[in-house]
Amino acid sequence: MRFDRDLAISYALRVGVSISMFFIIFGVLLIFIKNGGSGFTLAQIASYNPQLKVNSRYIYLGLIPEGLVHLDGIFFIATGLWVLVFTPITSVIIALISFLLTKNRLYIALSIIVLFNLFFAMLVIPHI
Amino acid sequence: MLTLIEIIIRFLSIVAGAFIAGLIGSLTGLGGGTVLVPVLTLFYGIPIIYATGASLISTIATSAGSASAYAKEKIANIRLGVGLEVATTTGAIVGSLTAVFIYDHHLSWLIYVIFGFVLLGSLVPTIQRGKYEIPKMLKPDWTTRIFQLSGSYYDARLHKNVEYSGVRWWLGEIIMFFAGMISGLLGIGSGALKVLGMDWAINLPMKVTTTSSNFMIGITAATGSSIYWYAGYIQPFIAAATAIGVLIGAFLGAKILVRITNRSIRWIFFAILMFLGIQMVLKGFYIIRVILISPYVQFAISTVISIIAIVIMYHVMKKIEEKGEA
Fold it and tell me: What is the ipTM of this complex?
């Protein structure tokens, strides 16, 4: 069967968004059921006040596995949001594969630059 | 303290606002953020850092949701999109780092004002180009061949296969850099600039432009989102609500888009964006006390100006239409 890039991307995007939404919705239910998460009460989480520090800066990604095991809603939401961030990246990877298959050198190079930028923003900039 | 019922209502009301934003964002190819940020800051009282953070990450959902539909129909040009992403992702890095600098220096009024002007500015290409569904073919240039800018798609409304070949790839790339920068700075998909880049610079049909732009928005937003994440602009409660709302709105919008003409898309975006744009500018100036009129008066002013502008627009469009038929 021929590799259909557009169909593969369509599928990957759909799967990524579905997984992400599963985690987010499940996380929201958990913070309502358990009246909070990650050491915050539900009322604190629902507050818009930046001083309460309920935001991504204080959600440590390293704690995600532990948070998921303990059914902590905040970490489920965080996982969902990160799956969302990774979803479009998979579409670039699929595009890259299609360029590799057709030996489209120029576009192989261009998609690698795009991926480099994405990972640069994700891995390098936070540590500067 | 908020009671449980109040929190549930708060959550659902954000979902509802995000739904509307997602619907409009998807219909226009702008991405939900352009509508979402003003709605969250103006009507929900959410601080702008959390509004832009929630918006940027939700924009990925809009983009992925609708791009999924468009990619399947093979209208979006993925190759072209990836090529232009080189500039948008670079721009997104520059833009989001600029945003971090601005917020660190307590200059958030600047974001409101820039946001407002970007919103109003995105109306310009709309006004200028309402005439053609498919642009006049321009003579292919050297970039057409090297960067493989030709393609075709099946237009369900026109019942025919539309062939096109883009030009001026370099100019598109320059505009895309700024599109990415605005995206990172304001937490939006910056679809208007992306559409401008592909529509005006590369000269692609409107359908290809909006769908490819939708695909690209996700990748640009993913770049900015990771920087926003570490800066702490993503508030899980707000972001969860907007991601859900925007996605449902975008999904519905994509279903509708395939069935309506481009002209009606432009109408929706003109009316709402005009109002929100003026509101954002006024709010920015209100924060630093450049203007001192009360928010209610601001609201009235924005409403009146947008209604007048829409009426004028309507007549202009009508004239153009009549000329086209004559």
Answer: 0.93
> Chain A contact for B20, CB < 8 A?
no
| pLDDT per position as a tens digit, B230-241 | 999 999 999 999
What is the reported pLDDT for B196?
80
Torsion B155-B323-B165-B253 (CA) sign:
negative
Q: Is the pLDDT of residue B298 over 90?
A: no
Q: Which pLDDT band, with edges at 50, 70 and 90, does A16 fall under? A: very high
pLDDT digits (tens, 9 = 90+) for B55-69: 999 989 888 877 877
Q: How many residues does chain A have?
A: 128
Report the residue of A87, A94, A97, A100 to disrupt the B interface, i.e. the one with the largest count of B CBs within 10 Å: A87
Give the Å distances, CA to CA, from A27 to A74, B114, B151, B258: 6, 34, 43, 33
Measure the CA–CA gap between B31 and B12, rounded to whole angstroms: 21
Distances (CA, A) of B236 to B9, B114, B189: 16, 26, 20
In the structure encoding, which two tokens stand for residue B163, read together?
A: 């062939």
Residue B244 has pLDDT above 80, yes or no: yes
- Tell whether A59 lies on the interface with B, counting CB pairs under 8 A: yes
Instruction: Give the nearest partner residue to B243 out of A5, A13, A84, using CB atoms.
Output: A84
Closest residue by Cα to residue A84 from B225, B101, B96: B225
The tally of CA atoms less than 13 A away on the side-chain side of residue B146 is: 8
Q: Give the relative orientation of helices B108-121 and B48-73 as an angle to the nearest 10 degrees.
A: 30
Position B319 scores a pLDDT of 79
